[in-house]
Fold this sequence. Notes:
The protein is α+β, with helices and mostly antiparallel strands. The chain is built from 15 helices and 16 strands. It binds zinc ion (2 copies).
Amino acid sequence: MNQETGLQKPRGTKDILPDDQPYWQYVLDCAKNVVLGLGFRQINTPLYEDKRIFERGVGEGTDIVEKEIFLIESANSSDGEIDDVQYALRPEGTAGVTRSYIENGMSSWPQPVRLFYTGPMYRRERPQKGRYREHRQFGVEIFGDSSAKSDYLSIMSAYEILTKLGFSKLAVAINSIGCPDCRPKYLLKLKKYYSDKLDKVCDDCRRRYDQKPLRLLDCKNDGCRKIAEGAPQILDKLCAPCRAHFQQTLEYLDDFGIKFNLDPTLVRGLDYYTRTVFEISSHEDKERKTTLCGGGRYDNLAEVLGGNKTPAVGWGMGLDRVVAEIKASKVKIPKLRGVEVVILELGKTAKKVCKKIYSTFRDQNINVFYIPSNDTLRSQLKMASKLEADYAVIVGQREALSNSVIVRDLKQSTQEDMPMTKAINEIKEKYNSEIKNC
Ligand SMILES: [Zn+2]
Ligand SMILES: [Zn+2]
């Protein structure tokens, strides 16, 4: 905290400092490369939306909407116009992307429409370890395909990203929570099972019993978990189409070698899910695992938000957690490009040559730093190493007249005289061969 002003970052947020940026860049590059290669295209939606989008989409009575949503004070604008819409910071990505799908008439695009997004999400929950009020997500949504192919593509894309990032012990948990045809019948059975156990469950569960009975199954409370394990399982009560869809999804996963565990207590907290729900954790071992990604199918959300009925499936990945895991695993990641070459000019006669070298490197996409200077070689070299450059190209009067340069390798502290074109080509080649992707 700043001692004088008391100013500090908001509770539950964090600064991502320069040292951590390479991790973020690495994760984002990898995620984008994977989904671009699978036919997804990027979408950006606002950080805030009409609050009703989250109430209807995520669901009234869910923890997110009841307790965790950040409302934005309706401001009077300077021209006296009063905004009568209540806005809220987005707690997750799917509702806003679905709103955009409807508003931009994407149902008339060739289907399915595959989209991905990345950005911060906001939940006003009590800050605790590993849970932030502002956290960053990467996510995908597939609209317009009700087949299990899209459930598979969705799960596989997340699995692929995490595998490429170096997670080798991923655990995929999967369940089906049915549809409006079969779920109500199951919920009756579930409530019957719980009806004589209400004195043994927590207060939250007693509330869920009336409002969100499905969520009785995913209470984290130990006592409640034991009771949930004995509850009737929804997989036994699915209607024939839901069962066939789930079966098909699992077959795809099998075919493509993605190992999964059926988890009958996995329901996910949001109202909009239908049929497939899944989570991917960092580790098979329960003690060591962190949930990195969660998602599912939401065939009724578009309709709830005022669009046509549109089948859809997607997931969101918590990037803060992914980055924390990668940092802890000490995986070597590519460093971000900084200053690569510094041009050191010694004396006025060198200026013209230096400018030429500068523009050649710049045109070749090499990060080159050049400020004409009258300083001594010694102090210019000091500046170059402060910039953490790889090479210094030194041009004095003698070099300028003979069209040569001195190339100093700043990391190895070696240097060599060579013709200017040779120097440019050698440095160029070095960087071209170094460009790597995830
Ligand atoms: Zn069903
Ligand atoms: Zn409970």
